[in-house]
Every structure is written in structure tokens, then in C-alpha cells.
Amino acid sequence: MRDVIVVGAGGGGAVIAKELAAQGLDVLLLEAGPRFADPEREWNHSDSDANNPYLGYFRFGPADRAKPQWVRDISQNALFIQLSGVGGTTNHYQANSPRAMPGAFADYAGADKDAYDRDHLFPFAYRELVPYYEWVEHTLPVQTAPMGTKEEVFFRGAKLLGLPLQTTKDITGAAFRPQENAILQPQGTAGKTSDASKLRFPEAQGCTFCGHCTQGCYAPVGAPINLKAKRSTSVSYIPMALTCDLWSSRGKPITLVADAFATKINTDESSVARSVTWRTGASGEQVAEEAKVIVLACGTVENPRLWLNSGLPNPNGWIGQGLTDHYVEVITGVMPFDTGSTRGPGSNGRIDFPGYGMLEIVGESPGLRAGLCAFSDAGVAGFYDNGLPGGGYGADTVGRLIGKDLKAAMANADRILHVDIFTDDDVEAQNRVTLSPNLPPDEHGPVPRIEIHQRSRSARTVRNREFLAQQAVKMLRALGAKTIHRINKPPFVIHSHNTMRMGQSADDSVLDESAETRWVKRLFVADNSALANGLGGLNPTLTTQALATRSAEKIFQRYFGGDPWVRTESPVSSIDDSVTRAVIQRGL
Amino acid sequence: MGDESQNVSILRDTLNGLLAFIVPGPDAYSVAQGVCDAEPGGVDANIMEVLIKTLDLSAPFLPHFSNVVAGILNDLAQKVNPAAAGALLSPFARLSFSEKVAVWQIMDSTESLKSLAGVLPAFVAYLSYSDAGVFDATTGSLTGKAMGWAISNYSGSADGRDEFRGYFEGRQSREKAGA
Q1: What pLDDT, on a 0 to 100 scale, did the predictor assign at position A391?
Q2: Do B176 and A168 touch (CB under 8 A)?
Q3: Which residues of B touch A185 (CB under 8 A)?
Q4: Which of A417, A458, B33, B47 could be cross-linked to B97 through a Cys-Cys bond (beta carbons 3.0 to 4.6 Å apart)?
Q5: Among all residues of chain B, which has the CA nearest to that of A409?
Q6: ∠ CA B124-A10-A506, rounded to 5°
Q7: Where does A383-436 show beta strands of DSSP type E?
Q8: For residue B115, which of B60, B71, B58 has the smallest C-alpha distance?
Q9: A236, A238, A260, A367, B144 from A256: Cα distances, Å
Q10: What's the ipTM?
């Protein structure tokens, strides 16, 4: 019997596995997708080879790319962007790692407290989470982002809006700031040349500004796995977890099994979690193993699916309910000057509007951006609006860009400035994950159905997105944009949360404040689905990782008689020399 | 055999009409719709095969989904303008640009077609402006300059860029505590 089985090796599962293994527990970490052990060999800079959700190496599907992706029932105009594999969605994320809005927590008493989703707050105080933020920020590590051209332009725009600079990690008011990113700052030749022969480690260290975050980061070429620039868990927490015995005095390395799709959580007659059954993709073999504690970290879609397919209780109906996705929107400006939109990290600048959400400057290669410009819920720009409310606020077009409008907008990929909007959206039961009544089961059982009711979001959610859209248009106009396009997107789910939410009330939550499920003991959740709300519209990964660290302590205390460590010990950074020596010694 | 080959031709004809609709160029399909452009467009991006494969794999429970998509576009095209004439095989490809927009408006307002109406233009635009047309999966390298990269003046992929502009106000770290 294992001490702990963690199901899912993404942004949260890898963290809780490493933390518990560092305390000496015997941890088995299961991952449904590929291992991704050698990014330099398995990934490249191709936006088509990486990001095609059906054919690419970053898709939600099996390791064998000759097999089709795993099916979800999304019978609406929407895209749900997740990927399987060790590292999960952190492999293609942009590594933006802000702390949550304090207003999303139970203790918040600021003058603007009523601006937040007061019915769905975190069941503990913001200050309670800060030591765990600090622990994760040191471990990854999280650092203040440098600027490229697009950030210089963006910060100029933020000043034109009259906004101050946020100088602290904690958000204290409406302000702009360089991102706090889980990307190593550039050193040596990194960021100073495009000559590949000068960009090998150790001559180059940290971010090389290649502009390919979404294709997976393996820069600098030649660096040990734990010194890659972007701190996906596949290069930070996973290498640490696999070498715990070498850098921690009491650590025990985890067992990592990829290509293992969990299909059932088995409980005893007292509703206590006892074992996990999974299917090995290559052979189709069913395997089961027992553990003292089981942690779900399969993501916001697969956690509720696994729960429901396991026949576990759902007395209040909140398994899978309350999905928030930040009601994403995109405003694109065509500028009369170079913006460097395709160069540098995905996003190194942001503006936070507490109570509303945030704006991010975002850049990437032209394929992804053109696709996003043509993805709308508001009809074809200039022809019809699909009856969708939402003002242009001075934008030249609203809706899907196609034809000559798309070509004009994309005529120079480095003269466009894309502002992505992430809304502080309400937890609403109507937005949810269930089992599909439409599609047949696959080899893992009934498939999940995702529903997001885009046209009937709460008044506060709609108001927030409109406010942010207005601010983005105003900023682009002030910067001198030649044309501005509001896309008015359908659900474009790159942040998803809350489908197994923790909460203050047992009536509308699945988890208690320790992230243990209310109805099955010894079963915890440690990914974005555990979050109580959408964090005020902020990138979720850091908070999920801090919460997973806190949950690791709860598990260790409650079921293994151990003591907490975050407030009494110092974290080891994943780029520490001891970890580098360990990964080299172990041949990772 | 004759029917199969005609199906293949209609499929490709329809998808070329779609590529021209989303990213027009100087090709015959763009000319036929009355909206064309001197610079190359989707038809010239060499992405037909990957588009068909992407469509087919987007709904693995429906065999040959690309044919289903082409059928939907052609059925709606005949409703929008049954008299559309021309040398092209596909009724959708024979439509004018504004008639194609009318097809999309029907899809956008038909519950069962809303998903397709939303994601199809996104995928066509994504593939047109990506390196899909020149990516060699066997070597993992590019065989030439992608059309979409050329028309967007993209410098192409690289291991790094000369783009580091320092730190805002020289601040290389942030204070831990808030107010």
C-alpha cells in the first residue's frame, strides 16, 4: 500500500506530490498523458505541431499521437484548452504567477468588499495563504519579469490611463506592473541575440525571449532539466519530486507513472477512499493500487468526471458545478509602430482592477493570434452581431475578423498590440461539468460534458467584462492605434476553476477548508478545481500551487501524524545547486 | 469510383472556398467570391491536407467529419443562393463573399451549428497563419517559409531574440508585503 496516490501530474498534482515526498512519504503520481521527459527532443518551436488541439503534441490526448484526442462533449461555440502529459497545462502556460485578489477571501474587509463574489469566498483568510505563496515563489522560483518592446508600450499605455505602479506582490489597488512570472530572468547572452550558436547553456541562462512559450520551453538549449527558463512543473516540481532523497534529508523519491488514465476511485463501506484503478494506454491493462490517502489533480473537467464515474456521492449537486473561466475577451490594436508582439515571453505586463479583473499584454506567433481574431460569439465583424450585447467603446470593429479585415489586422504581426481580458466572474451553478448524455462512453467510461452559459452570465460578471473592454480600448486609442478590434469571444477557456470547489458553506461546496472532500474521507483535491472562486480574475496557477502546498501539510498532519513545515523551515529552490546535482546524478 | 473521386473533388473545392473566405488571396476561389487580394491567402498556404485531418480528428466519433462539414456548407449555400453559377464544383465555393457571410449567419443562429460556426473560422485562420503548410513531421523542421508568416511579416521561429529591454524603472524584484 502506498502512503499517497496523486492522480494528475499538472500544475497542482506535481506540487503536492513533491511536498509529501520531501517529508518522506511513499508517493505514486499517475499521469494520463505522455511523460515529456526530454523537452529538447520532444518539443519544437512549431505553432502547428505544438498547438493544434487535435494533432499537436500539446493536446488532451494519449501519448501515442496516431490515436485521436480524448473526447469531451462541448456542444456550443467554445474552446476548452487543456493538455495532458507530465506538467499538464503548465507546459504551454505563460507562467504568469500573481497572488490572488485579497477580496476573494473570507477575511477581506476593504471598502470595495461588495465588488467581489461575496457568496463564494475562500473559507479562510488571505493572510493564511501568504506563507504558502512565499514557499512556492521561492521553490519555482517566481521573479519580476523584464520588459520587451510590447511591455514598454503597454506600460506607457497604463500610465496614459492614469494608473500607478504596483510595487508589492500583494495587490493593493488598481495598478499596472511587470508580471511576477515563473520564468528565470535572462542572464549572459539570453535576450541579447538571435544567434542560436550563442544561446546554449551556460553562455545563455534564463529566458532567451524566443517568443514560443505556448510551444513549450526548452531554453536555453543544453541546460539541465531543472534550469529551463519557464518553470512548468515538468522542469521544476517533477525533477525535485523524482530526486527528493538526494536534496532533502528525509525525502523519498516519488514513483511517476505516465500513460495511466484513472478510471475509478474505490471506497469502502464507510465512504473512505481506499484505492485507484487506472487504465494503461499502451496495453489497455487495468491496474489498481491502494493508498492511505488519495489526491485528485486531474483538472476541472476530469476530476468531476472521475468522481461521477466512480459512483461517489453528490448530495448537494455541486460536483462539477460553479465553473469559472474568467469570461475571456480580446482587444486588438493595430499600431503605427513596432510593438514586438511576436518577441519575448507571452506576457510580461499586466493591469489589475480589483473587483473587475485584469488586462494582460499578450504576444505569440501569428497562427495562434489569427485564430483568436477569427474566434467570436458576435458574428462577422461589419455584417451582423449575433444579437450579442457588448459595446465597442470606440473600437472600429466588433466580432469575428475574417477576409480582408483579418488580413489587414495581421499585415504586420509586430505592429499589433493584443490586450487579453480576464474577468472577475461569478461562481454560477449553471456553468458546469456533467456526464454527457449525447456521446458514447470511451475506453475510460462516460465522457464529460462542459456547459458554459455565455449569454446568461450574472450582471456583475457582464459589467466587469464591459468595464475592462472599455479600459483596453481607451488605452489602445491613447497609444495611437490605427484600428482597434473587439473580438467579443465565446468561451475561450484557458483558465478554469471551481468544479470541485472549497467553500464556506456545505450547501454549495465539495471540499472543506483543508481541501478534503466532504463526503469521502482521505480524498483530497489539489488543482484549479479546488479553488473557491475565480480569484478576482487572476491567473490561477500560483494560488493553486500555494493551496496544494497548504493541503500537503493538512494531509501530513491529519493522516500521518507529522508536523507542518512551511512556517518553520526554508524552502529549497528548484534551481538550487543541490537539485541540479541531483537531476544530473539521476540522469533526468 | 467515379462518385468517390467527385466527393474528394467537392470536399476540396468546398474547403478552398472556405479558405478563400477567411483569408482571401489572388486564387480562383477568392476571385470567384468577389473578394480577393494581391498577396497570397489561405488557398496558397498548402494546408488542405492538415485542415482535412484536423476536421476529421475533431470529431473522432463521426467518420470523415470533413465531408460532413463540406455537406453542411454546400446545403446552406444552396439555400442562400440556389442559382449561384460558375465553374467551381462546390455550391459554397460559387457564392459571393456576402453570400458566404449569409451562410455563416444561418449557422450562427442554428443551435446545432453554432459550435461549427465558431470554431471553423478560428481553425482556418490559425492554420493559414501558422507553419502547418511547411512543417515536415518526419524531420520536425520546416521545408520553407510559411505563407502566413510571409504575409504577416513574421521573422520566423528562433531559439532567442535580441529583445531584452531591461526592467521597468530598474526594479528587478518586488517587495513581499502589501500595505
Answers
A1: 85
A2: yes
A3: 172
A4: B33
A5: B152
A6: 105
A7: 397-398, 416-423, 432-435
A8: B58
A9: 15, 9, 10, 34, 40
A10: 0.96
